């Protein structure tokens, strides 16, 4: 979906840059820093940078490139369609897609050299695609060690291995990897991680006895990469951490040596003085406690800000104010207090909902608390209506490149076309 700046015969060539009206600013230097930090923690294991869901809302193509520049060896996505979009952008790094349906395009994945996660039911379909393409498929066998989502059950593991090895002997596929996913690694005190690790070691032993010689065995996510070196094996899959967010309750990004990469910001679109008792937004759940100045912030739940997050912080002119009243589809309100005519000076000022927090400003974690969710959701849900402004691109990305024309270029979110 595209939100053009103008329509019809009108031109915005001489107008202001819409990226500065509202945008999610993506700092690729922060992505590179975080990948290097996680690579140091994982060494000697390799790093897979997980760029599913449009790189957690940050832009899959620029983030993938930055992660590879910083030392990631692999990329990971959920859907085959996400993998094909990266290939179409010219990214040829090792790439795994692991969440499929009966309509997933396995033939296109095989043709594009995309590795395919296989929980069992997909195997015959993958082999059919390999026959059709006259090219062996590369698969990673997934086992469910306790999370209860996709992956072969422990009881079905022997059968899956046997069938996969038969097809490998026929030259139809190559078992490239074996993997599983941890359920509670973000809660280091819980025993289930040890239980899953033990189960994973057992299935690896069974695979070795069956003659499987994978390139990579991978289990660790971001929290396990940072806290459980015994789960690293040959490769770690890091998602949240490369975006600079902490997976641990009670530990900040800074304490983990990570830098948040997304800043969500806009401009104050109205300031007005109101009397004591002025109601604010739908339902009038908030009323001013005296004469006050209300500032309108033009972002709402259509932009991905949680409607439930009343009280979420917004920073304007060096001060942080909570959102008052209900968050609406397109806008929200903050109460600046009884500042009188000085409020007029804040019209057009930058309003930051979350960012790095380096200046004491709000973070995605703060909004997660206000919404009763986690930081993953806060950044991932920012909608395509909010342009992504990418900064600190590699000098190699210049005019005529698939990523854009220069640092600060708009990178469309998934499903968008460049206007």
CATH topology of the largest domain: TIM Barrel
Radius of gyration: 24 Å
Numbering strands along the chain, what is their spatial order in the largest sheet? 11-14-17-16-15-18-10-1-19-20
CATH class of the largest domain: Alpha Beta
The description of the largest β-sheet is:
10 strands, mixed
* Helical residues, percent: 25-40%
Stretches with pLDDT under 50, minimum 5 residues:
1-7, 398-419
Catalytic activity: L-alanine = D-alanine
EC number: 5.1.1.1
Domain Alanine racemase C-terminal: 261-391
GO molecular function: alanine racemase activity; pyridoxal phosphate binding
What does this structure look like?
This protein is an alpha/beta fold. The chain folds into two domains: 29-243, TIM Barrel, CATH 3.20.20; 262-380, Lyase, Ornithine Decarboxylase, Chain A, domain 1. Helices cover 26% and strands 21% of the residues. The chain has helices at 28-42, 52-56, 60-69, 80-88, 106-111, 123-133, 157-169, 192-209, 222-227, 364-371, 375-380, and strands at residues 22-27, 46-50, 74-77, 95-97, 115-118, 137-142, 173-179, 216-218, 235-238, 262-267, 270-274, 279-280, 286-287, 292-297, 313-316, 319-324, 332-335, 350-354, 388-391, 410-411. The strands form three sheets. The protein has a ten-stranded mixed β-sheet with strand order 11-14-17-16-15-18-10-1-19-20. An eight-stranded parallel β-sheet has the order 8-7-6-5-4-3-2-9. α1 (28-42) crosses α3. Mean pLDDT is 92; it is low at 1-7 and 398-419. The modification N6-(pyridoxal phosphate)lysine is found at residue 52. It catalyses: L-alanine = D-alanine. Its EC number is 5.1.1.1. Residues 261-391 form the Alanine racemase C-terminal domain. Pathway: Amino-acid biosynthesis; D-alanine biosynthesis; D-alanine from L-alanine: step 1/1.
């Amino acid at each position: 979906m595209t939100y053009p700046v103008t329509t019809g015969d009108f031109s915005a060539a001489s107008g202001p840059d819409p990226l500065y009206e509202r945008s999610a600013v993506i700092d690729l230097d922060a992505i590179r820093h975080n990948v290097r930090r996680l690579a140091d923690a994982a060494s000697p294991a390799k790093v897979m940078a997980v760029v599913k869901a449009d790189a957690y809302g940050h832009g899959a193509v620029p983030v993938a490139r930055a992660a590879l520049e910083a030392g990631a060896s692999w990329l990971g996505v959920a859907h085959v369609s996400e993998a094909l979009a990266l290939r179409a952008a010219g990214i040829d790094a090792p790439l795994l897609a692991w969440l499929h349906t009966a309509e997933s395009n396995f033939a296109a994945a095989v043709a594009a050299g995309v590795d395919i996660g296989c929980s069992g039911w997909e195997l015959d379909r993958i082999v059919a695609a390999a026959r059709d393409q006259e090219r062996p498929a590369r698969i990673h066998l997934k086992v469910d060690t306790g999370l209860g989502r996709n992956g072969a059950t422990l009881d079905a593991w022997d059968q899956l291995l046997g069938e996969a090895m038969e097809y490998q002997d026929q030259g139809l596929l190559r078992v490239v990897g074996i993997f599983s996913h941890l359920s509670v690694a973000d809660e280091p005190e819980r025993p289930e991680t040890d239980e899953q690790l033990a189960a994973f070691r057992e299935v690896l032993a069974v695979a070795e006895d069956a003659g499987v010689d994978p390139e990579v065995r991978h289990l660790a996510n971001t929290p396990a990469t940072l806290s459980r070196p015994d789960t690293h094996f040959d490769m770690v899959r890091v998602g949240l951490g490369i975006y600079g967010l902490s997976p641990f309750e009670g530990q900040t990004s800074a304490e983990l040596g990570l830098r948040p990469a997304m800043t969500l910001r806009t401009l104050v679109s109205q300031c007005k003085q109101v009397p004591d008792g002025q109601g604010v937004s739908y339902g009038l759940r908030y009323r001013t406690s005296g004469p006050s100045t209300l500032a309108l912030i033009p972002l709402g739940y259509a932009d991905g800000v949680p409607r439930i997050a009343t009280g979420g912080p917004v920073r304007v002119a060096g001060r942080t104010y909570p959102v008052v009243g209900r968050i609406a589809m397109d806008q929200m309100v903050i109460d600046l207090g009884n500042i009188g005519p000085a409020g007029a000076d804040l019209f057009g000022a930058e309003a930051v909902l979350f960012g790095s927090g380096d200046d004491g400003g709000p973070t995605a974690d703060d909004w997660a608390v206000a919404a009763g969710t986690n930081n993953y959701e806060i950044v991932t849900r920012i909608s395509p209506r909010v342009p992504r402004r990418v900064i600190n691109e590699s000098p190699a990305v210049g005019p005529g490149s698939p990523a854009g024309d220069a640092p600060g270029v708009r990178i469309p979110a998934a499903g968008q076309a460049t206007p």
